[in-house]
Task: inverse folding
């Protein structure tokens, strides 16, 4: 059951990271959310053969990771864990696109390999940005940002409740799975029948818990509507943050800086 | 007559599947009294508690809380004056942070944000957990959760506090803290529990329920002298009076 | 399977996000109108339950691999389609943010693929008719398995379409389809059995849960008509997409034919697909000049890319390396400053 335990740990750890106090942590969650989205959209808008144009974009994650005390090895490990899917689809590119479009001296690189690397870079940037968002903002704050930006209240409440009970349920599942593993003689694997008992029981207990939670809500005067108190204010600093990064990303999208730099240097040399 | 704050008259209740739970419970509580409800598991303690704020409706009999007889119309007012705290604090702390949970009740009452804030801080201060106000509930210890659950009910300023097994799963220090807290409350208290030593400290009156009926109702110390009665309800005398010649001969 | 930001284009993710957001809004309204306020805590804990349950694996008999429960079907069965969809969406949000499952833009695709198909197609059109109002054990099992399979097939098809239409991955439509559908058929069967097993357990121990759920969403109240219209539109679009591929790219079919007969003709057809993708991209990209090569260049038979001649590529590499060094240095300096504070 290592999967449950590590997942449990990960969520808790991300939460702890998000509770730190740095300049970036103190920004309005809406600012961070919007900036992340602008970043990802810009990255994704490049054509399939873009590689060098992406490199300056790494400034965003690097600045954020450094500036908010995030542990790079941890984030890299998470990236590595989910790399497979993008990798598996992307690896077909070199098979389908054999046209040589790049020549490094005697070595010819096909379009397929270029686009494959492009995919991997996209992956690191886009997924990295999402992880950094959660590690610097925290899930509750992100939900609050969504709520204030027009997400239907029912959905925001669902996100908050679900998240709140994630720990409770993962712990319960862990306990049940451990109890079973301790009593089984053939190791970790379980058959469909035992699985259905375990998960089925967990489901029944969850339904009972829902009943009890509803009772608690009833006792405190629940009338069908959940009201959230938190006031958050968008300051000039937040606005500057969003505007600054947005301008930067658009600039990088329009000008291939490495190309520019490279041409200038090769121009100087020759 | 209206100096009684809780009047339960011949309460009878059976579950939807037919099993009879309560066979005619009657008792009266005066303002500020502390009542303990004890009995074996399955005797009907929790079922009785759930009637006190209208979550369950009796098949027969009546309940009156303060000036309000329990009817569909008066339910709203009764819920305001009866604060209930359950066994598992995880079921009661469902909001993202401690502050949100304690504010839930006052917000539902329709108070303005400033009043809500005042109530929340007062409740948190009473249970000594104001430093936890921005914590998410899953980051609290068992004792802290218990305290916050109580605060979440206190913030509604109830007249009556009903609690189901408040000291279960607490370490001795947290338990002692809770007992001191309960002793300091001026609310009318109804506590269902197995912790008879706590009952000695907190409740001056005790009700014993056995198989859906009241088998004893009187001053705590008196009730605890009847060892045979306690045994029938799968109970023992409180640990600290067992073997004490003074307490045991106070019959 | 999840869609990824690395493979998606702004156009495709934008469309899917619009669809998902629209559905979230619609379902939120529906759930709000619900008289039973028990749904709110129930949705929350069931979301957490599915999340936890998905981490419990069982071994598939006869193989060394393991399977787990899907989620969409069970949620739809217990909560009904609207609340079920919202719950599934909330699970995917957490997975995208904490477990890097795909990314923020692909989330729009994933919410649609893994939420819409189980809750609004598989559940009302397959599970419910089979299971009926008072489900018997066999019908529950059959309905759950079939609904799971079809829901996943549709989801997989959607991923293929979204990937190919984005144009970042260069795998052809047919190849990807041949890859995805069989795999998801197997996954669908496994998840179907898992779902069926759990639902059967509930049916044995607390049948009233299922009966109440079935009664709570009378099939008449569901806009079946709307769903059928939606299916029709989807069918037309899919058919249109197929015929579009066929007509403008006879090469694509030729390629499959050639492959089947043993001859290889990879380069030519891919160029064909590539151009139309380019046309779409140039219409949607911020600056078409930075997108794919223009149709004019294509028509003139130009093989090389304007921006990709030898000189530019070398300078690009040099510039890229220097930029990278600069970027890393900036990061290092900030880190040092942070430590000093």
Result:
């Amino acid at each position: 059951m290592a999967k449950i335990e590590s997942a449990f740990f990960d969520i808790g750890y991300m939460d702890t990271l998000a509770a730190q106090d740095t300049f970036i942590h103190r920004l309005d969650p809406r600012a961070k959310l919007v900036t992340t989205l602008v970043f990802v959209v810009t990255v994704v808008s490049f054509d399939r053969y873009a590689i060098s144009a992406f490199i300056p974009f790494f400034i965003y994650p690097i600045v954020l990771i450094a500036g908010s005390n995030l542990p790079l090895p941890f984030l890299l490990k998470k990236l590595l864990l989910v790399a497979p899917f993008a990798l598996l689809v992307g690896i077909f590119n070199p098979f389908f696109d054999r046209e040589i479009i790049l020549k490094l001296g005697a070595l010819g690189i096909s379009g397929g390999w270029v686009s494959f690397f492009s995919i991997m870079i996209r992956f690191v940037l886009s997924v990295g940005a999402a992880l950094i968002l959660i590690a610097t903002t925290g899930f509750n704050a992100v939900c609050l940002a969504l709520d204030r930006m027009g997400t239907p209240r029912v959905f925001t409440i669902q996100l908050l409740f679900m998240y709140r009970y994630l720990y409770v349920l993962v712990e319960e599942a862990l306990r049940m799975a451990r109890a079973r593993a301790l009593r089984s003689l053939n190791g970790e694997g379980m058959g469909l029948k035992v699985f259905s008992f375990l998960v089925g029981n967990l489901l029944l207990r969850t339904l009972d818990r829902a009943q009890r939670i509803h009772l608690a809500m009833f006792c405190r005067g629940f009338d069908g509507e959940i009201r959230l108190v938190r006031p958050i204010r968008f300051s000039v600093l937040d606005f500057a943050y969003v505007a600054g990064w947005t301008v930067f990303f658009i600039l990088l999208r329009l000008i291939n800086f490495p190309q520019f730099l490279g041409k200038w240097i090769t121009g100087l040399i020759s | 007559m209206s100096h009684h704050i809780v009047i339960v008259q011949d309460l009878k209740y059976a579950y939807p599947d037919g099993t009879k739970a309560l066979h005619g419970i009657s008792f009266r509580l005066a303002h500020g009294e502390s009542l303990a409800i004890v009995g074996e598991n399955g005797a009907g303690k929790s079922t009785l508690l759930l009637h006190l704020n209208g979550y369950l409706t009796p098949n027969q009999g009546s309940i009156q809380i303060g000036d309000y007889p329990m009817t569909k119309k008066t339910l709203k007012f009764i819920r305001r004056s009866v604060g209930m705290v359950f066994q598992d604090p995880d079921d009661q702390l469902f909001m993202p942070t401690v502050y949100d949970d304690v504010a839930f009740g006052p917000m539902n009452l329709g108070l303005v944000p400033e009043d809500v804030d005042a109530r929340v801080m007062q409740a948190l201060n009473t249970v000594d957990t104001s430093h936890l106000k921005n914590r998410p509930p899953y980051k609290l210890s068992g004792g802290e959760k218990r305290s916050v659950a109580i605060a979440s009910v206190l913030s509604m300023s109830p007249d009556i506090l009903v609690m189901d097994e408040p000291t279960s799963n607490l370490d001795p220090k947290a338990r002692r803290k809770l007992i001191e807290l309960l002793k300091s409350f001026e609310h009318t208290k109804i506590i269902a529990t197995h912790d008879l030593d706590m009952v000695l400290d907190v409740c001056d009156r005790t009700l014993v329920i056995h198989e859906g009926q009241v088998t004893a109702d009187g001053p705590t110390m008196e009730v605890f002298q009847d060892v045979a009665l306690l045994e029938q309800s799968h109970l023992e005398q409180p640990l600290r009076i067992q073997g004490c010649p003074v307490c045991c001969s106070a019959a | 399977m999840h869609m990824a930001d690395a493979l998606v284009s702004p156009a495709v993710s934008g469309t899917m996000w619009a669809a998902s957001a629209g559905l979230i809004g619609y379902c939120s309204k529906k759930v709000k109108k619900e008289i039973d306020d028990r749904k709110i805590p129930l949705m929350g804990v069931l979301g957490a339950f599915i999340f936890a349950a998905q981490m419990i694996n069982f071994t598939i008999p006869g193989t060394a691999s393991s399977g787990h429960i899907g989620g969409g079907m069970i949620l739809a069965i217990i909560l009904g389609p609207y609340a079920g969809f919202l719950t599934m969406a909330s699970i995917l949000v957490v997975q995208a943010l904490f477990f890097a499952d795909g990314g923020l833009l692909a989330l729009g695709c994933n919410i649609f693929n893994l939420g819409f198909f189980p809750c609004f197609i598989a559940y009302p059109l397959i599970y419910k008719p089979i299971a009926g109002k008072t489900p018997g054990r066999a019908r529950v099992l059959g309905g759950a398995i079939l609904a799971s399979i079809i829901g996943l097939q549709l989801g997989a098809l959607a991923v293929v379409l979204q990937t190919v239409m984005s144009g970042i991955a260069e795998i052809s439509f047919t190849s990807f389809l041949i890859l995805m559908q069989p795999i998801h058929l197997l996954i669908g069967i496994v998840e179907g059995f898992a779902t069926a097993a759990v639902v059967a357990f509930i049916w044995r121990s607390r049948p009233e849960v299922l009966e109440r759920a079935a009664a709570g969403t009378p099939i008449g109240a569901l806009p079946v008509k709307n769903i059928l219209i939606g299916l029709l539109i989807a069918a037309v679009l899919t058919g249109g997409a197929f015929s579009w591929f066929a007509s403008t790219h006879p090469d694509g079919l030729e390629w499959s034919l050639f492959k089947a007969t043993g001859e290889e003709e990879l380069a030519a057809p891919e160029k064909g697909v590539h151009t139309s993708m380019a046309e779409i991209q140039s219409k949607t990209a911020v600056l078409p000049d930075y997108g794919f090569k223009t149709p004019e260049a294509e028509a003139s038979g130009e093989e090389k890319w304007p921006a990709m001649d030898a000189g530019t590529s070398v300078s690009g590499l040099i510039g890229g390396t220097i930029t990278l060094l600069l970027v890393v240095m900036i990061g290092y300096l900030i880190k040092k400053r942070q430590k000093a504070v």
In short: The two ends of chain A are 61 Å apart (CA to CA).
